[in-house]
Amino acid sequence: MKTKEDFLNGQILLIDKPLEWSSFQAVNALKWGIRKKFDLKKFKIGHAGTLDPLATGLLIICTGKFTKKIPELQGQVKEYTGSFTLGATTPSFDMETEVDQTFPTDHITEELIQTATKQFLGEIEQVPPVFSALKKDGKRLYEFAREGIEVEIKSRKIEIFEFEITQITMPKVHFRVVCSKGTYIRSLAHDFGKSLQSGAYLTALRRTKIGDFNVINAVTPMVFKENLS
């Protein structure tokens, strides 16, 4: 059993974030659980890398003195699995918003899909989605997007180490990606659709690894709280 001192001195907690939870909600659930259990007024807690509410999987949460490790953990290589749906796009590049355009998919073969992955390997320039929490002029991009204001978003260098198509059940394409910090899988979905002379958006996303940490060793916030008591 972990003690109050353990959490204050620092812990790295591996959480499997449930679907539709924000990363902030997951941190909060742990924070209140730990505070209640040990009657703590204040202690440090934070996560090392946000996951969108529509994504599931590995969230690293640091407590106490280990919150200093967050920047280092955020910089680690990440692995994701998930699926794209071909033949359509959405403004948010995922299922947060409705389909705004549809495209033909008749010309898309399995070979074309497999070949398309190659152009995304290595160091590439990627434009983050307009529906993202990145800031421009002190305001989050998704705030501009929701107000219908167009803003210019600069591309940034990211690196994709592995991009594997694991299954094709048209119009769905299942994938596994290993990538650097700052990679948006939603943008990858969007750009992948374009590379096929079609469209695509992200329909499922699970973060499976961050550095040497694996989601198979993670627990949900609910299980974490049960284990505390």
TrEMBL record:
<feature type="active site" description="Nucleophile">
    <location>
        <position position="52"/>
    </location>
</feature>
<protein>
    <recommendedName>
        <fullName>tRNA pseudouridine synthase B</fullName>
        <ecNumber>5.4.99.25</ecNumber>
    </recommendedName>
</protein>
<feature type="domain" description="Pseudouridine synthase II N-terminal">
    <location>
        <begin position="37"/>
        <end position="185"/>
    </location>
</feature>
<keyword id="KW-0413">Isomerase</keyword>
<dbReference type="InterPro" id="IPR002501">
    <property type="entry name" value="PsdUridine_synth_N"/>
</dbReference>
<dbReference type="Pfam" id="PF01509">
    <property type="entry name" value="TruB_N"/>
</dbReference>
<dbReference type="GO" id="GO:0003723">
    <property type="term" value="F:RNA binding"/>
</dbReference>
<dbReference type="GO" id="GO:0031119">
    <property type="term" value="P:tRNA pseudouridine synthesis"/>
</dbReference>
<dbReference type="InterPro" id="IPR020103">
    <property type="entry name" value="PsdUridine_synth_cat_dom_sf"/>
</dbReference>
<keyword id="KW-0819">tRNA processing</keyword>
<comment type="function">
    <text>Responsible for synthesis of pseudouridine from uracil-55 in the psi GC loop of transfer RNAs.</text>
</comment>
<comment type="similarity">
    <text>Belongs to the pseudouridine synthase TruB family. Type 1 subfamily.</text>
</comment>
<dbReference type="InterPro" id="IPR014780">
    <property type="entry name" value="tRNA_psdUridine_synth_TruB"/>
</dbReference>
<dbReference type="GO" id="GO:1990481">
    <property type="term" value="P:mRNA pseudouridine synthesis"/>
</dbReference>
<dbReference type="GO" id="GO:0160148">
    <property type="term" value="F:tRNA pseudouridine(55) synthase activity"/>
</dbReference>
